[in-house]
Design goal:
Strand content: under 5%
Number of strands: 0
Radius of gyration: 25 Å
CATH superfamily of one domain: Tetratricopeptide repeat domain
Mean pLDDT: 87
Number of helices: 20
Shape: elongated
CATH architecture of one domain: Alpha Horseshoe
Order of helices and strands: HHHHHHHHHHHHHHHHHHHH
């Protein structure tokens, strides 16, 4: 009997189960390349059998069992595979691959042994299930180049003996920082891209939010995971107002707050409250608190800039950064005036002389102080450094208006 929907069901099962299966295989074999090959073998067998036999009652378990059998068959034929054969034969769980297998895969992909770009690429490929071609497109690179990068990353994990498992408690926090950092970088790149092609990447935003939700499900009491999830939700609550009908970037001060998603803001604030109740403050919780103050203000003029300035002080203690101090200077503009803010900003020139936003903020402060020619030069330099098309349009518009 033919089952015409079987292949569609297989695609659905793959999207739901592939990352866990990949993680379970990698966990037991210590080899992500081999795990990927066994998973593909299992999928090919499913594509051959399911249209004739129907989708099994437990499709994820079927794929897991088939991948295990394929692995045993392959390793039996290889001299070097005998040690791995014992691992896969004796330690494979009777139940479906667990959430711990998936979490272990995420931690491995975000291992500090890998460069940050490779961490993100491997996460997109192995955890999010993007094809190599899709990952290459995200990086604006040829597919063969990305295939080589992914292969090098997998081999490096194997050579360094990185475990595809949840880290031990004594190293958990340091490794978690890498995972959350990768997720937030993905979100930021999607929210306002560094590319000259398009202003935003909604697919990367969705991927980052999916990973944030997943980490929350796997570690529901981790305060920084809650903080990051709340932060992304608060930013997305105003997504529909960030660009106008012509695709131009709209500044926060000019956005129509009546169109912000209030239900999402309330849900994010509740998540943040849960995180703060843990009394383990971290940078994502502080950034979420800043975003919440912006979201709760009825208009830009009513923003609690004094509290935001204090939060940037706290953020700078947690993660010292000239960019954090740049944002603090923006708050200083509204609490102590443009002249004081400019003094704070100019202290950062040595560290941020090639950063577009340093010049953009300086242009605004100089304009407040009536130093219009200096402001024009600062805006011009910000435009020269900007790559995002929407940012460039906004800066060009500001120059024209000035």
């Amino acid at each position: 009997m033919q089952h015409p929907s079987a292949l569609a069901d297989l695609e659905r099962v793959y999207r739901a189960e592939a990352a866990r299966l990949r993680g379970a295989l990698a966990h037991r074999l210590g080899d992500l390349d081999l795990a990927e090959e066994l998973l593909q073998d299992a999928l090919l067998e499913a594509a051959a059998h399911w249209p004739e036999e129907g989708v099994p009652a437990n499709p994820g378990g079927w794929l897991a069992t088939t991948a295990k059998r394929k692995g045993i068959d392959r390793l039996r034929r290889e001299q070097a595979g005998r040690d791995k054969l014992a691992l896969i034969a004796n330690s494979w769980p009777d139940s479906d691959p667990a959430d711990d297998d998936l979490l272990g895969l995420i931690f491995a992909c975000c291992s500090p042994e890998l460069p940050r770009e490779s961490q993100i690429a491997l996460t997109l490929r192995s955890v999010c299930g993007l094809t190599t071609a899709e990952v290459a497109a995200a990086y604006l690179q040829p597919e063969p180049t990305m295939a080589q990068r992914l292969s090098r990353a997998r081999k490096l994990l194997q050579q360094r003996g990185v475990r595809f498992a949840v880290p031990d408690p004594d190293e958990f926090n340091a490794r978690l920082d890498e995972v959350l950092g990768v997720v937030y970088l993905l979100f930021n790149e999607g929210y306002l891209t560094s590319s000259a092609r398009e202003p935003a990447r909604h697919d990367l935003v969705a991927t980052a939010q999916w990973l944030g939700d997943l980490l929350h499900q796997l570690m529901p009491r981790e305060p920084e995971g809650l903080g990051l999830r709340a932060l992304m939700m608060l930013h997305q609550a105003r997504a529909t107002t960030r660009f106008d009908g012509w695709g131009r970037l709209v500044r926060l001060a000019d956005q129509d707050r009546s169109r912000w998603d209030r239900a999402t803001i309330v849900a994010a604030t509740e998540l943040l409250d849960s995180a703060l109740a843990g009394r383990r403050p971290g940078p994502y919780q502080v950034q979420a608190a800043i975003a919440a103050l912006h979201a709760q203000a009825t208009c830009y003029a009513d923003t609690d800039w004094a509290q935001i300035r204090l939060l940037y002080d706290q953020l700078d203690r947690l993660t010292p950064s000239p960019v954090v101090r740049l944002n603090r200077a923006v708050a200083t503009r509204y609490t102590h005036g443009a002249a004081t803010a400019l003094v704070e900003l100019d202290r950062l020139e040595g560290e941020l002389r090639d950063y577009r936003l340093w010049y953009a903020v300086r242009g605004e402060l100089l304009r407040d102080l009536g130093r219009t020619e200096e402001a024009r030069l600062a805006d011009k330099r910000a435009l020269e450094l900007a790559t995002n098309p929407a940012e460039r349009e906004l800066l060009a518009r500001r120059l024209a208006e000035a």
